[in-house]
């Protein structure tokens, strides 16, 4: 499994108490990963980088954690899922964690949405960009993406479908949002030793907004990112992932391309990737209800993406 830890047996798990029994008992690395969603590798990285959590070494060499540490790790994982950087959450005191976990998420500002749409109608990309970035520093990445960027994208799409906006409006909004997202990504300076996420879409998929949103979530979670753009054949994605030493490949699937053929291509791509590279899929097309190929991780939303990346950073 990891280190010198053998695969946790049923008997081993049965001898350990649940987190509700804290602080008594010891938790194996596998049990901690199961209880918190934080991988064994991430636990080691956090201990090395941030000095926490410190495992206790048994005479056998196995690592064990206390119930109190498991409870704390759950709180850290939740804070990270809510948009806090792992480096901040792990180093936070209990009172600081309380504050991170109880921050109120701002309500949708309808007036703000209408103002954004007025800029779209006027084909004013400067005004739209300024509105999207208004108050950005007061919001964590996931909240900003959901309540600012996501709201604009959804409203533009809905009104275009209803005939209230023309294709020129939709194109301007898409280009403006893409530009803003890439500018935000440039603000991050990831650790050069951090895991790498390769971003792309499969052949026939031209939509990229989902990729840029996930890129920001991954960057906030401590990952590095690289993109080879959209509409990429499976064999080229696999070769790029291997050449770059990627830890994961992120693929966005829109409703326009989601279906049987896309799932076949995902299966093909999974078969071309080495075992050490995860395949992560998101987007409306990935949530179509069809069964995805084995060993493909479907991430339903941005909160889920934040949790997934944080657990493996």
Task: Describe it.
This protein is α/β, with parallel strands linked by helices and 313 residues long. 51% of the residues lie in helices and 10% in strands. The protein has three domains: 92 residues, Multidrug-efflux Transporter Regulator, Chain: A, Domain 2, CATH 1.10.1660.10; 76 residues, Orthogonal Bundle (Methyltransferase, Methionine Synthase (B12-binding Domains), Chain A, domain 1), CATH 1.10.1240; 115 residues, Rossmann fold (3-Layer(aba) Sandwich). A five-stranded parallel beta sheet has the order 5-4-6-7-8, sandwiched between helices.
Q: Major beta sheet, specifics?
A: 5 strands, parallel
- CATH homologous superfamily descriptor of the largest domain: Cobalamin-binding domain
Q: Mean of the pLDDT scores? A: 83
For the record, give the distance between the C-alpha atoms at the N and C termini, rounded to a whole number.
18 Å
The residue fraction in helices comes out at 40-55%
The first-level CATH class name of the largest domain? Alpha Beta
Protein name: B12 binding domain protein
GO molecular function, one term: DNA binding
Region (Disordered): 1-22
Pfam family, one: B12-binding
């Amino acid at each position: 499994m990891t280190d010198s830890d053998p695969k946790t047996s049923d008997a081993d798990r049965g001898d350990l108490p649940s987190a509700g029994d804290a602080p008594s008992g010891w938790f194996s690395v596998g049990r901690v990963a199961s209880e918190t969603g934080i991988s064994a590798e991430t636990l080691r990285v956090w201990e090395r980088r941030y000095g926490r959590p410190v495992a206790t070494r048994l005479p056998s060499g196995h690592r064990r954690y206390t119930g109190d540490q498991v409870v704390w790790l759950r709180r850290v994982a939740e804070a990270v899922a809510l948009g806090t950087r792992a480096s901040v959450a792990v180093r936070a005191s209990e009172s600081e964690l309380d504050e991170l976990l109880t921050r109120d998420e701002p309500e949708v500002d309808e007036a703000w949405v209408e103002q954004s749409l007025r800029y779209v109608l006027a084909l004013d990309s400067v005004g739209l960009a300024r509105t999207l970035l208004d108050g950005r520093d007061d919001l964590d990445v996931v909240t900003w993406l959901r309540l600012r960027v996501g709201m604009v994208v959804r409203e533009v799409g809905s009104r275009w479908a209803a005939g209230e906006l023309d294709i020129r409006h939709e194109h301007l909004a898409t280009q403006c949002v893409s530009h803003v997202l890439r500018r935000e990504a440039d603000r991050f300076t990831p650790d050069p030793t951090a895991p790498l996420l390769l971003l792309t879409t499969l052949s026939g998929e031209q939509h990229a907004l989902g990729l840029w949103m996930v890129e920001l979530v991954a960057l906030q979670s401590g990952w590095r990112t690289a993109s080879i753009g959209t509409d990429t054949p499976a064999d080229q994605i696999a070769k790029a992932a291997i050449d770059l030493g990627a830890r994961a490949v992120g693929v966005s699937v829109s409703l326009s391309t989601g279906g049987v053929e896309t799932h076949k291509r995902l299966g093909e791509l999974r078969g071309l990737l080495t075992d050490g590279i995860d395949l992560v899929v998101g987007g409306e097309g990935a949530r179509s209800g069809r069964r995805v190929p084995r060993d493909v991780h479907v991430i339903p939303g941005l909160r889920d993406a934040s949790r997934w990346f944080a657990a493996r950073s």
